Amino acid sequence: MEQYVIRGGSELKGEVVIGGAKNAALGILAASIMTDEDVLIENIPNVNDINVMLEAIAHLGAKVDRIDEHNVRINASTISSYEVNDDYMRRIRASYYFIGSMLGKYKCAKVPLPGGCAIGARPIDQHIKGFEALNAKINISRGYLSTEAKALKGAHIYFDVVTVGATINVMMAACMAEGQTIIENAAREPHIVDVANFLNSMGAKIKGAGTDTIRIKGVSKLHGTQYTIIPDQIEAGTFMCMAAACRGDILIKNVIPKHLESITAKLLEMGNVVQEFDEAVRVIGAEHQRHTDVKTLPYPGFPTDMQPQITVALALAEGASIVTESVFENRFKYVDELGRMGADIRVERNVAVVDGIKRFSGTSISAPDLRAGAALVIAALQAEGVTHIDGIGFIKRGYEEFDKKIRALGGVIEYINDPNKSEYA
Ligand code: EPZ
């Protein structure tokens, strides 16, 4: 079983370079099949979710040329199937982005329904609402969603909840609908803007991405492009919280500071030093940090994908903090694991009361999901003694060379596939 073995307490100091944004890359890869011309995508993160998505695209019949770990050329002119294999959906929920891209280009798609996951039910009712508004027929049976449309017609769509996935999915389909589509109450995350910019580089006509109203003029054809993905806001934020929690001094390079503003604001409230540069931020963790309150919200609010990481930093601050998770209904599962390390956190439904302690103590824990796994690594790096973390397959889905980057900062972390082989066992 794959594990990280971490000896806490070493000073974390130095530089880390952030990779491409996983959640932008997933939408962009799905959209890359919307043309029959070559698409060159640069700065993709070399993480498991991306590699599964590329396998799924090849499985549809497209040509996938992995130039190197961060660059890929895709040509979808040879696609022969409009059905996504169930195995891919089980491995990655973002396979549902193929509904929007295939509906846009081929006016039909058959995709397995995504299951729920560790952090919540995650329904896709808003995706379906958007596709039906565009004149697509939706049929759900035997665990599959099948959809087709004689022609997609532009529509005025108002999302009942702010949803990243449905905004991206419906935006893709609407790009090749007849007429104008307006999406109201759209999600505004940086990765939405990146997907919209990618589609516009292929000849789509999207305006307003990054605001809550997106206007799209449908086109009949999209052309090839060459596109570089933005840096990953959440990977950057994870290292920012690592510097705070471990009282380190980390220069986080290849970031867009604007995307990190809500995280910077919270770390400053806690008393940390955060210096902003054009394409980097430096975080110096203060010895004594103050408690503060955090409520996760859609962008530009504090990201839900940063909730576990900031909670670990708050668990090491002085006083009591309140963390409210307003996006997902079950995103505090990791708190039980932190409790085993000595954290003093009480959870009532979607609110956690976090009483600061001086130091975690190392033990054996399990990562329940991707972002919680990264947060538990931060806790282990600060802890007294050795921590064994299993379930790190989750972490490898979204963080490239996480242990290698931490070792380069001075962290003592080892990846093992057999618990008996650790020098820290
Ligand atoms: C994306 O998930 C991200 N995943 C998640 O990151 C992220 O936590 C989430 O956006 C919020 O920012 C990818 O981009 C691949 P949503 P998504 O649709 O699109 C409800 C990570 O760690 N909802 O914005 O699934 C839903 O239940 C992952 O990288 C509906 O009710 O999130 C949730 O409560 C974890 N109906 C809220 O909206 C719908 O049709 C936000 O979900 C769709 C969503």
Mean pLDDT: 96
Order of strands in the sheet with most strands:
21-22-1-23
Q: Could you tell me how far the N terminus lies from the C terminus, measured between alpha carbons in angstroms?
A: 14 Å
Bound molecules: ligand EPZ
Number of E-state strands: 23
Main sheet characteristics: 4 strands, mixed
User: In DSSP terms, counting alpha (H) and pi (I) runs of 4 or more, how many helices?
Assistant: 14
Helix content: 25-40%
Structural class: alpha+beta
Q: What is the CA-atom radius of gyration, in angstroms? A: 22 Å
The shape is globular
Strand content: 15-25%
- Unreliable residue runs: none
Description:
This protein is an alpha+beta fold and 425 residues long. The strands form six sheets. The protein has a four-stranded mixed beta sheet with strand order 21-22-1-23. Strands 2-14-16-15 form a four-stranded mixed beta sheet. α1 (22-31) packs parallel to α7 and α8 runs parallel beside α12. The model has no long low-confidence stretch (mean pLDDT 96). The protein contains 14 helices and 23 strands. Ligand EPZ binds next to α1, α5, α6 and α12.
